């Protein structure tokens, strides 16, 4: 039996019996009972019924303070009135849910992003962060006309073959630190996928530079999370060095800010590091709780997908096409309801004092948790930037994926299962995201719950 499952108090399974039944029903018609593998945890996920502000309520009526926040997307909490009003107003004024044509909110959001992110000259919308990174890679390969990309070990950019490589590799397969192997993270992938993706060591500038110089004739782009997994920051010298090297070698630098956009500062990690990537992928917070993605970047790169450049694959018949624009399409790209929700979210975050107060509350929670764990003699640190962090049980410095192999994840998960019983929600082992809806009272209750959970685990 999974030891983390044993860690749950004996009556917790009774408290979530409705979730167990709902999950079993779902398993009959949905593989594994979940619509995304990340939603699953043993013995079964908790099935939610409704939410408000910082709180979730499951199908059994149990209440939780939510720190998962849909993996960080809900920065204003659940059901924020400003977002709901914007959505209702958009639907009422437009009289439809989607046009399939250009509309004014596309320009309005694009201009907002260009104003916030100095690295962006132009913007295209997608329906997820995954689609945004996929488009970024296609653009970079068209721009540089080289067959391969490079990504960093431990970084996640979406569930497609080009980047589903060495996200969580077994150390027996991962190779040397200075020259990591490309390791497939899913069945159904081909050797060609692995060959086309070069793996780099995060936060190791010397080794990264050596690989990029050796393979510069093959690599179109480097893509990275400036803050790995949303909580392990890049060293400032590493980031500046990576920007210098990619500029020198003519390699497109792509920032995946799906997690960090609007969560570290409004301008994301690139604002904190004072670095302008060539392309930036956004998602999560940008949609205000609706599915969204966006890609922004340099004019000369972004213009490759302009339909004014040439024919499109969906334009058939007539004169023979002699030049094709880079293909990018999607029926729901720039969905008006989604953009209305996203604009309302950003507008609220831009109000004076909102981000500073959110950052204050995040620091209060981090310091309070560190004190509780240290009182119990546990080696623990909260690692992160801005409004995202994770609880790491180690005294060692955490700088990359391999640093996490020494972390005490077993104790962390046991504590997390106890926290579920105590009404604190995040997927066991996952990072914490804060919202403007979290109150000081929420923070105090969370710190107290950790105190109780740690005692339960240590006294077991």
From TrEMBL:
Pfam families: Aminotran_3
Species of the source: Alkalibacillus flavidus
Enzyme Commission number: 5.4.3.8
PANTHER family to which the protein is assigned, alphabetical: GLUTAMATE-1-SEMIALDEHYDE 2,1-AMINOMUTASE, GLUTAMATE-1-SEMIALDEHYDE 2,1-AMINOMUTASE 1, CHLOROPLASTIC-RELATED
Family: Belongs to the class-III pyridoxal-phosphate-dependent aminotransferase family.
Native organism taxonomy: Bacteria, Bacillati, Bacillota, Bacilli, Bacillales
Protein known as: Glutamate-1-semialdehyde 2,1-aminomutase
Region Disordered: start-end pairs: 170-190
Single Gene Ontology MF annotation: glutamate-1-semialdehyde 2,1-aminomutase activity
Gene3D superfamilies, per database record: Aspartate Aminotransferase, domain 1, Type I PLP-dependent aspartate aminotransferase-like (Major domain)
